[in-house]
Structures are given as C-alpha cells and as structure tokens.
Amino acid sequence: MFVIGDCATCHVSPGAENVLLLANGRAVTPNQDDQLLLGGGRVLETEFGAFHMPNISPHPEDGIGAWSLAEFTRAMREGVGPDGLLPDGRNLYPAFPYTSYQRMTANDVRDMFAYIQTLEPVASDIPDHDLKFPYNIRRGVGVWRLAFLDGQPIEYSPSTEAAAALSVEPDVLERGHYLVEGPGHCAECHSPRTFMGTIPQDMRYAGGANPEGTGYFPNITPDETGIGFWSANSIANYLRTGISPINKVAGGDMADVVHNTAQISDADRFAMGAYMKTVPAIDKPAPGMPEPNLTPEIVMLPPSATQVPELPTSGAGEIEAAETVYVAHTKTFFIDKAAVGTADGDGKLLGATELAVVDREDGRLKVRLDGWQMPEAERVFYAEQGHRILQAILGDAAIEQVSRQESMVDPDTQQEWARSSLEVWIDDKDMSTELSALWDYSADLYNASCGTCHALPVKDHYLANQWIGNLNSMRRFTSLGDDQYRLLLAYLQNHSKDVTSRDPGAVE
User: Fold this and answer.
1) Which residue, 16, 77, 153, 367, has most beta carbons within 10 Å?
2) Which residues share a beta bridge with 367?
3) DSSP H stretches of helix in 385-434
4) Given this model, what pLDDT does residue 30 score?
C-alpha cells in the first residue's frame, strides 16, 4: 500500500540526484536520495500557492512518530491531522489525496501506518504552506471537506459482460477498482478540476493540466482520444516498464509513479489495467491535438522514408581497443582480407554474435567465431549445443575453412553436434563492445513490439528453440526490420529457460 500509494514521491527528503532504475532498466533521476527517508520538503507550486510537503517519517516531533493509529486513520480518511490550535484537529489541504485514500480499507490503512513506523526517523523543519488568500484559511478547508468528502467507498459492481469482454473474473475488476480509485489515486492527476478543486464526475480520467501549470496529464479513458487502443496488458506493461505501446517512455511525475508500480505484483498491475478498460470513455483530446477522423472519408498519411534502425553500436576508438566485439547490424564476412568492402562475401554474421578479435589492419578486423555445428548442416553456426541460436550463415569457401572438433551426441536431443571455430575478416563498423547494450536495446524492442497486445511472458518462460516459432509467427504484426528482429530473437533465446545468459550483468 505504501508503494502503490506513491507516498515517497511527495514526502521523500530532497537531496542530491540519484539514479533509479525502472523494470526495463531505463534510468530516471528524481530529486531524492533515499525513497524511505520521508522528511518532506518538496515544494509543489500551484495556482493556489506553494505547498510544502510535510515530514511523515516516524520522527516523534518533526514527523508522525507520536501519532496514534486512530489519528493516522483520520488523516487518511477524513483529511484532519491531530495537531493545530483548535481541539478538533488541523484541516489538511486536499493536495494530500485523502479524497482517494478515504476509499482504503481499515486493514490497509493500518498496515501502511505500521510500515511507516518501521522506517528511519528524519529530523526536518518544514515551513507551512505559502498559499494565496482565501486558500490560506484552513477553516475553509473544513467547509470544503463537509461539502465534498463523504468517507464512503465508491459503489462498484462489475458487470459480467465487462468481465467476459476482457476474459477476466469479476473479482479481478473489483481488485483493480480498489487499487485505482483508492490507494493508487489515479484520478487525482488524470482529471480536470472545477474552480472549487473538485473532479467533475463526467470528466473523471479525461486528463487535465498539472498543478504547476507546466504540462498536461493525459486522458486515460478507453476513448480514441485517450488510451482506447491500449489493451489491459499494455496498461499493465506500462505500469511495470514505463514504456507505452508506441514506445514513449514515462517522464516527470509518471516516472516516479512507474518506479513504484513496478514493485507491485503482476496480478495487481493487470487488475488495474483491466479496470481502466471499463471506465467511461470520454472524448477529450489533449491540448493542440485534433479530434479523431470519424467520417467515411479516407485520409492517407504520407509514406515514411525507409530508414535503417539505429542500433546501439560502439565508437571507432572503443572497437579499436576491444578484444571482443558483438555484431549489431548483420555483417558480411570474407575469407580474403583484400575482399573486405566489396559486394560479394563468404557469409553473414548475425545480431549479438560474439567475435574474438585476432588481428587488425587498416579498418579491417580478423575475428574468430566460436560455436557449434551439426553434421550435414555445415552452412549454419549456432551459439549453443542443442539450441538453434543462429550466429552465422556460411558460403562454400567459408565451410572449407571451419575447424571442427570431434562430434558428440547431445543427451537431450540425441543429435550430433561439433564444437567449431572459424576465422574471417570483416570491417570495423556497426558493432558493439558491450553485449549488455544490445540486450538493453532488445529489451525495449520486446516491450514496445510485443507488449502492445500481450502480457509479456518472462524471458525464461520458453525454451530457446520455442522462441523461434513464437516470435516468427507474430513478426508480421510488427514493424521490426531484419536486424532488429535478429537482435530480439537472440536476446530472447539467450535468456530462455534452457540457456544461461552470456552476460550476467545485463539488465533483466
């Protein structure tokens, strides 16, 4: 509940920037050192004035260490803190999203309080909010609470039709409803506000300006102007990786949110995604965006120019100093070094293939390929015995140059395999000295290309050989180029159930 409630994003103690990693390995740098030091101090600039985020660490004087569970529960559900000059407590501004937290169960509020009490106390001197008149009169917040805070759970009975349409059980939608409307407080950001600071019910989740007035929280309803084309799995994947179905990466406050939702269970993320597919669709384009074309007229988009994908490659200096290089773009190789750069070659080296550098000469590299071959299939080089992880395709001249050891029988497949090596010449372009860079790129491809429609299986869900058919059957639904496809397949095969990654330090 602490994580999905996004407590640290607002209440963490500001400090030197520290790199955080999302589930897909992308780095974000929120202004915080330790997610569990809740000394407050972040300033939220809004049209109402500046809100100074309070200390909620278990410090007995500066934080909430002296609060009782009853006082914490009242703050979470009623927006009233125990301190203040008046005996009925201190009204809390709804910048603290108790309008959503009021929907949380008593047990979850209790557990959140108990968890916060285990964290390190932080001493801090946080100034009071600096708000414009009349918003600086806290008694006015009490009137606001009486008018707009009901303290009741939102009524929700998922229809069997909605559940059936999503192929889920009704209890999945109930769980998603609770997480989204309660601790997740998604509507608080992704909805417009009235002049009284409330959310109009008919525009809930339709997007709105951020409090600072510097940006816009998008429409997340299942409308064409929102995220209607996202599947429930796409939403769940976004909450894990921060990558949308069109490969946009979460930034700003949403990067902080994803850092938190990446830590909850797959089942809870999917439940949230499924529930968001059932909220009312609202036609509300983002500022500056046109309405969708809903007429019979066909509008053709101009064709995009064919471009070679920018794969992660290393600079000339890095390649010059490397003893091992990895293929990024598919490379032609040559037996005769004098032929390097000509149109004809003696074979192809495929994405992510590891090559040992043997010699260098005038922008050309002599490299050694080590792998496995099967008798009567000498044109193919594989990375692993028993696994069809393609490394190279050989022409006739290259076949004659292969050095093979005595063949052995693979105990799993009962097929013959021979450890083999081949030395060839290549140019020194379009390669990487870091396999992890290729894996990181491929992980992003996996999320962007496959996560649009599917709940992504973990990489070791399938055997290396199973990934070949599974990925090939779906390729026509993607825009992957040949080199991208080869890298993605190599990534999935090298991290499959029956293969140990060649790069343990790579992002998983």
Assistant:
1) 367
2) 357, 424
3) 396-401
4) 41
